[in-house]
Amino acid sequence: MRKIKKGDDVIVIAGKDKGKRGTVLRVVEDGQRLVVENINIARKHQKANPQAGEPGGIVDKAMPIHVSNVALYNPQKGGADRVGFKVLEDGRKVRVFKSDGEVVDV
Predict the structure, then answer these.
(1) DSSP secondary structure letter of residue 28
(2) pTM for the complete prediction?
(3) Number of domains in the chain
């Protein structure tokens, strides 16, 4: 089980986008990098493809960011928080915030 998953609201804690919030769009195959909405944007020069109807020009592309540079956003705390795991009475393993023990997964 991963500490940060697709669809989580995260906050950047290191790098050029420090302090920005975004939603995880996808986890790259190695599990160590994430693509976050509006974070780590690179400009790509794209060649036109008339057969597919794609115009050429400069496009913005979200690049992966390392998982160590983001933290899960805790709405009760109003900031970044660390994540741990806990096994409930019914046997389910869930993610919890370290600061207050609140369950992340609903």
Answers:
(1) -
(2) 0.85
(3) 1
95 backbone dihedrals φ, ψ, rounded to 5°: -85, 140
Q: CATH number for the domain including 81?
A: 2.30.30.30
What confidence tens digit (pLDDT) does each residue in 28-58 have?
988 899 999 999 999 999 999 999 999 999 9
Per-residue burial over 15-53, b if 16 or more Cβ lie within 10 Å, else e, is eebeebbbebeebeeeeebbbbeebbeeeeeeeeeeeee
Residue 88 falls within a domain, yes or no? yes
Interval 72-90: pLDDT, tens? 999 999 999 999 999 999 9
Asked if the structure places residue 60 within a domain, the reply is yes
**Phi, then psi, of 66 in degrees rounded to 5:** -70, 145
> Do the Cβ atoms of 93 and 78 come closer than 8 Å?
no
- Tracing tokens 């020069």 back to the chain, one arrives at 45
Residue 3 in domain: no
Q: Is residue 84 situated within a structural domain?
A: yes
